[in-house]
Inverse folding.
């Protein structure tokens, strides 16, 4: 249970830190979404840039079966490396955004 608490706190801290960064263009809100009961965590951007509506998920992480799944990352940051630096073992990190057949070639868990 302590491991799960550590994983949740680490993910939440990472996303909250990023949510404070204001986007340079447009009137775009950064929303941090934590579904703590089902262990889904996201950063979503929503708003307007001139006459264009902007909506998109920037980061999506889940915790499934005791592992952190990186489902989506549209940032330039290496989130997996940040998780490792926060004390999370590589075998508890799954690059869900990688095709399953290629995960075995990474340093991380396959699923």
């Amino acid at each position: 249970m302590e491991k799960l608490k550590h994983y949740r706190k680490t993910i939440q801290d990472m996303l909250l830190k990023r949510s404070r960064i204001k986007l340079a263009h447009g009137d775009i809100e950064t929303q941090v979404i934590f579904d703590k009961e089902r262990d889904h965590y996201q950063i979503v951007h929503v708003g307007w840039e001139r006459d264009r509506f902007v909506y998109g998920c920037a980061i999506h992480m889940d915790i499934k079966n005791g592992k952190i799944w990186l489902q989506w990352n549209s940032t330039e940051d290496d989130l997996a490396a940040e998780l490792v630096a926060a004390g999370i073992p590589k075998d508890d990190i799954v690059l869900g955004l990688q095709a399953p057949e290629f995960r075995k070639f990474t340093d991380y868990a396959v699923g």
User: Anything to note?
Assistant: The chain has two helices and five strands. The domain at 2-105 is CATH 3.30.310.110 (TATA-Binding Protein). The beta strands are 27-35, 40-49, 52-64, 67-73, 93-94. The two ends are 20 Å apart (CA to CA).
